[in-house]
Amino acid sequence: MTRTARKTKGPRQKPKRKRMRLVVLFAIPTVVVVGGGMAVAAVLLVRTRGDTPSPPIPEPTVTTVQLPPEPAPRPTEVVDFADGCMSADCHGPMADRPHVHQTFADEACDLCHAPDTGGHIYPQLVTTEDTCTSCHDTGADHRFQHKAMSEEACLACHDPHGSGSPALLVADTTEATCLRCHPRDSGKINHEPYVTDHCGECHDPHGAGNAMLL
């Protein structure tokens, strides 16, 4: 019996697999200066390499955060009203607001504040409510009063010095002021007067004869 030898093509080779590795090149800490404040953002650059062409590297994204300005330092000695509170570096810029309380514009600080006795405190002459009601009718005689008035008095909604709002609100609009305490009400109201004129069209924010301040 004759045996026939089989021809072989050599050792069998495994097919090559294309490998792709993710390589982190470097992270760049970036400092961005915005309006007197600084924000730090890390920009991470990533690319791939291997047997296939690498995709283009995306543009880095930088996020900036506005930091609140540092408060002005208090004077180290007693400052008299006659020296002009608004001429000082710490109070002068407040007069640049779009709407300024008339007593503040007239530099009549002593109508609301007692003289400085040290520490640059200038306490109010009387309570906030009594200070405001000496010139303003706040509707305190109404049967129902706004809770904000009974707890924080006028300062809950108004800035006694100046504001971006003609009513000297703590926010630039009536809606924004109300939503500081009533954020859950904004998404469920589509009443036309509310959409066009906001809360003040139906509600009296100071007080009313109705429990809903209508």
- Percent strand equals 15-25%
Q: How many structural domains does the protein architecture include?
A: 2
The neighbouring-strand order within the major sheet is 1-2
Low-confidence stretches: 22-49
User: How would the global form be characterised?
Assistant: flat
Largest sheet: 2 strands, antiparallel
Order of helices and strands: EEEHHEHEHHE
Number of strands: 6
Query: Would you tell me the overall average pLDDT?
Result: 67
In terms of structural class, how would the helical and strand content be classed? alpha+beta
Supply Rg: 34 Å
What distance separates the N and C termini?
116 Å
Instruction: Give the count of helical stretches.
Output: 5
**Helix percent band:** 10-25%
Structure in words:
- The protein is α+β, with helices and mostly antiparallel strands.
- It has 2 domains: 20-68, no CATH class; 81-208, no CATH class.
- The protein contains 5 helices and 6 strands; from the N terminus they run βββααβαβααβ.
- The strands form 3 sheets. The protein has a two-stranded antiparallel ribbon. A two-stranded antiparallel ribbon has the order 3-5. Strands 4-6 form a two-stranded antiparallel sheet.
- The longest helix has 6 residues, at 128-133.
- It is flat.
